[in-house]
Design a protein that fits this description.
Elements: H1 4-12, H2 20-33, E1 35-40, E2 43-48, E3 54-56, E4 58-59, H3 61-70, E5 82-86, E6 92-97, H4 103-110, E7 113-114, H5 117-123, H6 128-143, E8 155-157, E9 164-166, E10 172-173, E11 178-186, E12 191-195, E13 207-210, H7 217-229, E14 236-244, E15 250-258, E16 275-279, H8 281-289, H9 310-323
Parallel strand pairs: 1-6, 11-15
Antiparallel strand pairs: 1-2, 1-4, 2-3, 2-7, 5-6, 8-9, 9-10, 11-12, 11-13, 12-16, 14-15
Helix pairs in contact: 1-2
The protein binds NADPH dihydro-nicotinamide-adenine-dinucleotide phosphate and magnesium ion.
Protein name: NAD(+) diphosphatase
Enzyme class: hydrolase
Cofactor: Mg(2+)
């Protein structure tokens, strides 16, 4: 069976002109048979399921056309859909921002709500969080890359939305991510978590920081830990990576690192972090039990980033190792 993503990806590589019309019709066909995740000014549309959980709302193109018609919008908006990839079921997946339509009217038509992406991350539990995150990042990139940074001329997207091309020089631009190191530091018995003033109340996470130009992962990690909490790390091991849509599109490289139990005194840079603390295994176990962020008026409690974040993965890897 033909994989629509493979067709699209091979078709996006600088096609000879004579093959373009075939590509356009294939892309149209794929869009017609695919499912489209909707956004409004970069907030994804979520629907509540019968079980009370949330899922991103996905529609086929004829449903979206109908919605556009009902709301008095031009069907051509559908052409702005950006290819996200291909599902396990071999179905192409797209995202589309309906920011030019009235938000409440779209919500009513679609029986869902556009929810800020950060909030969505706490509501979505499954594999759809990364999909929504990718969609938002791609839509944001298109919205902020409309002009060539060298010539100032407009850029035009290719059919799939995987690149933009300067209308004057033909320079091709691709979506960008900023590399970030995220690290769980341990002194052997405790692990170190911090919080920025902008985090939701009570939430602690692993330390993170952007890699500077020319730095390798290890250098960025040592510098960030030294800058943020004044510690010198010893052993570094790589765990896994994750695309992260905030603040603009980061590529998180998750690591573990250790410090000598004799040198654990923290010197927190309060311009970067509101607080940083060592946590015992018991404290982490209780924080992992907190199922949802505390509400206003609830007693203060330490809680951790949601399941699909790399920070939480690093923390659970650490707790598993402590029990070995
Ligand atoms: N998944 C998770 O649980 C967590 C994820 N994160 C993510 O990690 C990333 C980095 O975390 P953070 O602690 O804020 O980073 P940093 O510790 O590097 O501090 C942020 C500062 O770095 C400077 N900076 C350098 N390069 C960049 C860049 N490419 N983009 C933006 N700012 C840059 C800015 O300062 P200036 O303007 O002064 O130059 C910015 O205010 C973010 O994407 C954040 O969302 C962070 C913690 C937990
Ligand atoms: Mg930081």
């Amino acid at each position: 069976m033909l994989n629509p993503l493979r067709i699209l990806l091979s078709a996006t590589k600088s096609l000879p002109t004579r093959r373009c019309s075939g590509y356009v019709s294939r892309m149209r066909f794929t869009l017609q048979s695919g499912r489209i995740l909707l956004f409004h000014r970069l907030s994804p549309l979520l629907q509540r399921t019968e079980r009370g959980t949330f899922r991103p709302a996905a529609f086929n193109s004829s449903d979206v056309q109908l919605i556009l018609e009902r709301l008095g919008s031009d069907r051509s908006l559908l052409k702005e859909a950006v290819l996200l990839g291909c599902s396990e079921q071999n179905q192409a997946e797209f995202c589309l921002d309906l920011g030019e339509l009235d938000q409440a009217a779209v919500e009513e038509e679609c029986e869902g709500n556009f929810v800020d992406l950060r909030k969505s991350f706490f509501l979505l539990t499954g594999a759809e969080a990364p999909l929504v995150s990718k969609g938002q990042a791609l839509l944001r990139w298109h919205q902020t890359s409309r002009f060539c940074s060298a010539t100032g001329q407009p850029t035009h997207r290719n059919q799939a939305g995987s690149q933009r091309v300067c209308s004057s020089t033909g320079t091709i631009y691709y979506p960008k991510m900023s590399p970030v190191v995220i690290v769980l530091v341990s002194d052997g018995k405790r692990c170190l978590l911090g919080r920025q003033a902008s985090f939701p109340r009570g939430m602690y996470s692993a330390l993170a920081g952007f890699c500077d130009m020319g730095e390798c992962l290890e250098e960025a990690l040592c510098r960030e830990v030294a800058e943020e909490v004044g510690l010198e790390v010893q052993r570094i091991s790589y765990s896994s990576s994750q695309h992260w849509p905030f603040p603009h599109s980061s590529f998180l490289l998750g690591c573990h690192a250790s410090v000598s139990p004799a040198h654990t005194q923290l010197n927190v840079d309060v311009t970067e972090l509101e607080d940083a603390r060592w946590f015992s295994l018991e404290e982490i176990d209780s924080a992992l039990q907190v199922r949802s962020p505390p509400r206003r008026g609830d007693a203060p409690v330490v809680w951790l980033p949601p399941k699909h974040t790399i920070a939480r993965q690093l923390i659970t890897e650490w707790t598993d190792r402590q029990r070995e």
